[in-house]
Design goal:
Shape: globular
Order of helices and strands: EHEHEHEH
Structural class: alpha/beta
Number of helices: 4
Radius of gyration: 14 Å
Largest sheet: 4 strands, parallel
Length: about 120
């Protein structure tokens, strides 16, 4: 079982994908990024002692979005006990592709990596 933390619409997309493939992964939607909800995240992690991997899922490219702010908090609190990974689009100078077809393809690949544990 993986613990997947995400913010925004991608969390809803991940829930739909999880249900579609019957994955045992737990998805937690984090909407408060500052101050970081350390206690609430710790409660989710503690409630699932068999989970050894924490995944931060974000729709934005690696160099955008919340990952740069979140990773230190996750590693500080859970890095000794969990494998922590990020799943996001590749680093980019633009937050969007400008093509709905490409966006949908990238979104499908993003969700596939989240549930297969493949990080960038």
């Amino acid at each position: 079982t993986d613990l997947i933390f995400a913010t925004g619409k991608v969390a809803l997309d991940a829930i739909a994908r999880r249900d579609e493939i019957a994955s045992p992964s737990l998805i937690t939607r984090v909407e408060q990024l500052y101050p970081w909800p350390k206690e609430q995240v710790a409660e989710v992690v503690a409630a699932h002692p068999n989970a050894k991997r924490i995944i931060w899922l974000q729709e934005e490219p690696e160099n955008m979005g919340a990952w740069n702010a979140v990773k230190g908090r996750l590693y500080e609190a859970h890095g000794a006990s969990h494998d922590i990974r990020r799943v996001s689009r590749a680093e980019s100078g633009s937050p969007a592709t400008g093509s709905i077809a490409v966006h949908r393809q990238e979104q499908a690949e993003l969700l596939e990596r989240a549930f297969s544990g493949i990080a960038e």
